[in-house]
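TICKET: design request
STATUS: open
ATTACHED STRUCTURE:
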């Protein structure tokens, strides 16, 4: 790790006015600094900022510095969000990691984390060896000729499914952005991962009220049951009446370069009977536009099965 200057602002205004990389839980930043993937000369410890609080009175509101473990355990948090948080990491990491930091965590591509190899995210224009190299964990949706890395956050998938927004504060004031619009596809500029402007800070995560999200879940498929990143995951919320799907929210992770909302699957589910056949027909649409690589072709079949598994989990006993 290279030397850096550490400061600790006590107000949001001071934080966004000063230069430096923000440090909250540090569960991603510190790792990348140790690897020399990130080498900031100035770091701002923002844990003293007033960005805490969990409000479930009308929808959900989380201060950006709330820890993952506290949100997961809070009454009134939608099950898909709580479960995504619980499956994200070990208890020790969940106790440290902030919700804002989790949404901004970097991808887990081994080429990105190895400074001895090229990576367009780390060094634009240097190339993407994952396209023809070791790519079992990589994306099949939302890829480009510049990057095929998957987005790492579990809870971002659940939040995108439930139409979450983030409040951002910078020198020019505050703004609210839908989380689905906040993340950027790699295209020709994979180094630009989100809509965060220089100096801006996530201050709050807002999930609009969605009563049927009380019937929601997050299914995560991984190589081992203990702490591991997703090969595929699905966040699903269903409104079922008289054994038919009235409304649905579906997003997936582990298979795309950003948390991947599936409106085509949602549309196919609406009005359909809550049956295995209907679920399989809707899930088949999830792989439209998929571009498997040499080592991850299995993800297209796994994606469909994961969505069906999540749907069945929510409808057992109601069909």
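STATUS: resolved
RESOLUTION: sequence designed for all positions
ATTACHED SEQUENCE:
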């Amino acid at each position: 790790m290279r030397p850096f200057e550490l400061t600790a602002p006590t107000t949001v205004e001071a934080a966004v006015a000063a230069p430096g990389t923000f440090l909250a839980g540090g569960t991603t930043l510190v790792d990348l600094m140790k690897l020399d993937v990130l080498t900031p000369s100035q770091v701002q410890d923002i844990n003293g900022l007033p960005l805490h609080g969990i409000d479930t009175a009308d929808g959900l509101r989380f201060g950006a510095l709330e820890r993952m473990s506290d949100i997961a355990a809070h009454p009134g948090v939608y099950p898909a969000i709580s479960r995504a948080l619980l499956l994200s990491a070990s208890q020790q990491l969940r106790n440290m990691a902030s919700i804002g930091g989790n949404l901004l965590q970097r991808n887990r591509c081994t080429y990105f984390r190895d400074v001895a190899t090229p990576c367009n995210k780390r060094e634009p224009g240097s190339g993407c060896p994952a396209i023809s190299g070791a790519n079992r964990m990589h994306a099949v949706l939302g890829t480009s000729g510049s990057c095929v890395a998957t987005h790492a956050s579990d809870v971002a998938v659940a939040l995108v499914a439930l139409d979450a927004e983030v409040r951002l504060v910078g020198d020019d004031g505050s703004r609210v952005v839908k989380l689905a619009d906040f993340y950027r596809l790699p295209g020709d500029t994979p180094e630009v991962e989100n809509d965060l402007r220089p100096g801006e800070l996530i201050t709050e995560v807002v999930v609009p009220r969605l009563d049927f999200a009380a019937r929601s879940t997050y299914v995560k498929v991984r190589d081992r049951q203990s702490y591991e990143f997703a090969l595929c995951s699905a966040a699903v919320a269903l409104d079922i009446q008289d054994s038919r799907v009235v409304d649905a929210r579906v997003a997936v992770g582990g298979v795309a370069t950003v948390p991947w909302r599936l409106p085509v699957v949602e549309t196919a589910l609406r009005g359909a009977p809550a049956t295995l056949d209907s679920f399989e027909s809707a899930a088949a649409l999830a792989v439209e536009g998929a571009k498997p690589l040499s080592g991850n072709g299995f993800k297209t079949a796994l994606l469909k099965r994961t969505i069906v598994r999540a749907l069945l989990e929510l409808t057992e006993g109601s069909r």
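CLOSING REMARK: The two ends are 56 Å apart (CA to CA). Residues 151 and 179 are 13 Å apart (CA to CA).
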